[in-house]
# Entry
Amino acid sequence: MDDATRPHRTTALAELAAAVIFLTRLPLPWRGHWPADLDQRALAWFPIVGALIGAAGGLLYWGLSLLALSPLLAAVVTVTALTLLTGALHEDGLADVADGFGGGRDREAKLCIMKDSRVGTYGALALVLAALLKVAALAQLAEPRSVAAALIAGHALSRGLLPALKLALPDARRTGLSASQGRPNRARALAAAVIGLCFAATCLGKLPLGSGFTGLALLLLTAAAVAGMGRLARRQIGGITGDVLGASQQLAEITLLLGIVAAVGLAR
# Structure
């Protein structure tokens, strides 16, 4: 068996590093060969990287609050910094899906629009609304510990659900980001979902939601939002793409943030 066909063994550290490289713009060095299945194996680490991203945002918000910045201004800076940290990876998917689903007349037209790097009216509107909703949610929570808990929960759970969505739907294209990664292993997809749920449940337990059942309802609501996006994608283009995964992450994150704000407000 030659090097081209020999299965590659990847360590957990390599899988985590691959997930960090994929999900962020951190200049993480990589030496040696990149195994063909590494992107697929790295999917299981998405919720952990998401939690780290959320923690970075929470730490930044806390630091800005110490500088006496208002909750609104601190929220704007935090959302901007996290977008830069991730390279707007998922926001790009959200814009493409909004343009494609909103402007395409049929499946092929929708896929063609989504592949276009230009942002249209629907995409621009989706980006503006997404940013406003995130900023408003963080500013409404205001208290640094609550903001950190919400960010960790939102970023971990939203990424933890993506492998399961990818496993549940066929690829809409034979080529592209999603198709190149391949279908995730069932056990790894389940592990990613469980890890994301555990991070989110732990963080929700730190928030004044009034009841444990409220936290459970928020988790189910977020999962339902991702499932709804998957169903919409199946009807619109016949399956999943990298853009659909990005849009699903954004929808899940915003859904959970808004749910937290509503639950905290009602519990007061």
About this structure: The chain has one domain: 41-267. The mean pLDDT is 92.
